[in-house]
Amino acid sequence: MGRSPCCEKAHTNKGAWTKEEDDRLIAHIKAHGEGCWRSLPKAAGLLRCGKSCRLRWINYLRPDLKRGNFTEEEDDLIIKLHSLLGNKGSLIAGRLPG
């Protein structure tokens, strides 16, 4: 009786994103901002579900997303936060830049 999975609709792409899909998602979010993820795919002309678009944006496409190794300052901050918060990775990550 619960919700149906988001990407089991007909005509919905699954798997790897193409460069064109990434470009469409980026352009739509730049023009309209982050908003209703459920209606975004149709408005942006994507054959993806809203959840897939949200996760792609948050985990791969955000301009402020930091890639690469941690700096010494970030390492020190992680150690300090770990001593305060313990093994709470999501809380620690929420306090790090990018």
TrEMBL record:
InterPro entries: Homeodomain-like_sf, Myb_dom, Myb_TF_plants, SANT/Myb
Alphabetized PROSITE patterns for the sequence: HTH_MYB (PS51294), MYB_LIKE (PS50090)
Domain HTH myb-type, chain residue ranges per copy: 9-65, 66-98
Gene Ontology CC terms, in alphabetical order: nucleus
Keyword Magnesium belongs to the record: no
Protein keywords: DNA-binding, Nucleus, Repeat, Transcription, Transcription regulation
Domain Myb-like residue range list: 9-61
Any single Pfam family the record assigns to this protein: Myb_DNA-binding
Listed name of the protein: Transcription factor
